[in-house]
Design brief:
Helix content: 25-40%
Largest sheet: 9 strands, antiparallel
Number of domains: 2
Number of helices: 5
CATH class of the largest domain: Mainly Beta
Strand content: 25-35%
CATH topology of the largest domain: Immunoglobulin-like
Structural class: alpha+beta
Amino acid sequence: MKAKLILTSLISILCSFGFAQTYVDPYVESVGDRICFITKVEVTKQNTIVSFEHLNNNGWIRLDPAIFIRTNTGKKLNYVKSEDIPLVPGQYNFAPGEQKHAFKVYFEPLPKKVKEFDLIEVESGGQYDFNFYGVNLNKKRTSDSQKPHFTERRIETEVVLTPPPPPGDMVRGFAEMYKATIDSYLNYLKQPKKLKELAQINKDYYDALIEVGFSKEQALQILISTSLFPSMNGGK
């Protein structure tokens, strides 16, 4: 009888371990934050554990506990806990020289046969949210370049509010100010060697990122997402 109980316990333990599966660098169709990567997904009977790495963007990161997984069958898996990343309103500040920061998020267990899902921090989505669409556990990520889920045009449409045009002389005044600003900027760029100087600054920044340890693709992603020059359209 005792031997039978021991055998039953061993079978239960082996089944438990047998169900646990680990997927390293799963394929992701498109993302919100292009410098945050899913490095591993662990599926157990108790939890779905997603490991992340976020490249240093000279800023900070934090997690909204409303984050969830939505499977390709429509099932929602809620947030359980997280490690090494503060929840809103707290934040993790990157240290000088820190290249990347790793953290984990635990969700409810993924159904055994499900191999594809979306991971959503903010339902409406944006370029700085931890949103990952088309996560496929049967495929591997092969590049550090991630496809944005939203085009720049769509992001601008969502966040830039155009006020109603003011009447009469104010309209003409705004038009003249805008034209003067554009003309001034274009005249600046027409100065000898200015465009080459701007290009050299961007190249030096790209080379510096590679020198401190980023891959070429990671350096390109950081260069794209972190402008060294003020935007003409009043962005962040």
